[in-house]
Every structure is written in structure tokens, then in C-alpha cells.
Amino acid sequence: MADLVSVVVAGINGYGSGYVKKLLTHKQALLAGVVDNAPERSPYLPDLRERGVPVYHSLTSFYREHHADLAVIATPIHFHTVHALEALTNGSHVLCEKPLSAVANDFPLWEKAVREAQRWAAIGFNWSFSKTVHALKRDRMAGLFGRAKSLKTLVFWPRNTEYYQRSNWAGKRYSQQGQAIFDSIANNAAAHFLHHLLYVLGDKIDTCANVVDIDAELYRANPIETFDTCILRAKTDEGAALLFVASHATEEEAGPMFALEFEKATIEYRCTNKTGHVVAYFKDGSTKVYGRLGVTHDDSFAKLDDCIEAIIDPNRKVPCTYETAFAHVQIIEQLKQHPIHEFANVKQVDGYRVVPGLADVLLERYETHSNGRLLPLKKR
Predict the structure, then answer these.
(1) Of 68, 129, 163, 226, which has the fewest CB atoms closer than 10 Å, so is most exposed?
(2) Is residue 119 located within the same domain as residue 138?
(3) Can you give the CATH number for the domain in which 230 is found?
(4) How confident is the model over 275-303, as pLDDT tens digits?
């Protein structure tokens, strides 16, 4: 058996704390160090100190004294590229949280760094690491479903005021230093489900479909620079229609759910209590159950196991790389050109800014693929 895989985690608060929690008890990995500009905020700092895990304020300081087989980048969006490139330059494979970047111009930098380091760089879109999704995708690639006609997904995940006040970059377009962020529901919390539509249609296990036509309606109920509600329609270069409906401003929580319509079958999924099952319903009346798919803690961090196993076994392929994730970045780039409308009838309920009736209207859009204005908007 190979030696334990050494891992450094950059960004141990917020989402990164989940990586620390998993790595503290991982049987195939060893925490070589952690990096954060405010490590004292981590609830795991006492455990890290007790185990003698080195704590640094920068990756540069870590690499000056240590090496890591794998670098997990869980820092804010605008640091993804710079931190990933530093890790690659120092000989680490990379697992970077989604998105790849907020700007498409960063892609050549990743490409060059990966090539020169002769390491891989994975991007943590959770469902792209799911065995259930892989089984579904392999059947699609084998032609079991026929030509893709339309794919749609919906998620309502209300977020309170604290969510947007948790950092100085949440909901921002740019940092105070001018770095691109474009944090939004499509580029952060619900990005997994937008990317999933692209990933399922990729012609290889680690590729995505190419999108050639995009139209979007962007809205906000919260006082942010980007948007918290989105209806995105797109077409792939092979003619499949895509629909992504998502909001942080509904009164109710729903999804994620999706329906993937092909010539020979429709694949459906609906998440309840953070889990659900993916089922294909064929036109001949038969069905195929692909298994469970969820949004639990274990589901979210299965990607870490995949990356550790890919280091132990070099023949194992990482299913979602920086190249796979670039399709999502290209969509975010195009969304920057669309206007953002403000809802007029926003209510404050228990710390949440919500739009009464929004869930019903969005659900109707999802089910009927209809167009038209949503609810009353503020006048410009």
C-alpha cells in the first residue's frame, strides 16, 4: 500500500472547514498543513494544534518548509487561480473549489501551470464526482437514451442576511483590490446544478457540452451587486435546450431537481431531505434506477476521496478538471452582459429577504418553459 497522501488545505473557515473535518480522520491522507489568514476562527484549530499540524497564513510560507501531494483550495473565488497556480508550481496536484475562476482569461494560466508542473487540477463540482452520475453519463455516451432534446434543473435555497454578510466578497462583482469575483447563485451555491447539465452531455467522462446560445433573466431581492435569482436558457452545439432556474429569495426551499429529456427516455431526480434517486423512464415503459444522489456533507466531499485515490493510483482519472469546468466559466462570462432587475415586493421574514409568490412563478416557468416578466420590479 502506498504511503499516506500529504494534503495542505488553503482556506479552513467556511466551506473549507468540511475538508479539515474529513482529513482529520482520513485513513489514506495526512494533513501536512493548513493555510488561512484568520486560523483562529476555525473550530478545528485546537485539534490541529493537538495533532501538530502546521498552521500558516500563506501558501508561500507553507511551501517554504513543506511539500504536499495534494493542495485543496477552498479560498474565496478571486483567489482560486493565484492559489492553484502557486500549488501547481510547488509540485502539488490541486483540488480547487468551484468555480474555476470568475474570468475566462484565467484559463490559459491554468493550462500552462498544469502542463509545466505535470500535475492535474480538479475542480470541485460535487455531482461530477458522483458514481451515480458517472453511471448515468456512461449510458448516455453509449447511446442508451438517444439524442438529447432538453435538460432542465431547479433549486430554491433561501439565504438569509447573514449569508451575504459572512464575508467582504459575498454578492460582489469585484474585490476592493479590483479582482473579479461575480459571486452569485449561478457562480456559487447552485453552480453545481448548472454545471451538471453541461457535464452529463459531455462526450467523455471528463468533458462538458459546448454552449452556443444563452439568454437569461437575472433578478435580486437582496442588496447585493450581482443576482440571487436566475432563469437561464441555453442551447448546446448539438441542439439540446437547457433551462436553469434558481433562487435564494423564495419563501420555500425546493430541490435540487432535474429532468433530462432524450429521444428514448427521460431521466428524473428530485431531492427531498438532502437526498433522492436518479431514475430513467424509457419510452418502452421500462425503468432504470441509477442510485441515490444527494447534497449531504458526505456527498459534498466525496471529491476529496476521488482525488486522493487518483494520487495513490496514477491510472485513475480525475472526472472533473479545470478543462471540464471551463464551460461553466464561459456561461458566467456571458451573464455579465445581462441586466439585473430588482424585485419591488420584497419582505423581511426572520432574517430572510423573500419575494412572496416567487416560488410558484418560477416553478411554473420550470414546468412549462414559458417566458414573460416575473413579479413586480423596481423602476430604474
Answers:
(1) 163
(2) no
(3) 3.30.360.10
(4) 999 999 999 999 999 999 999 988 999 99
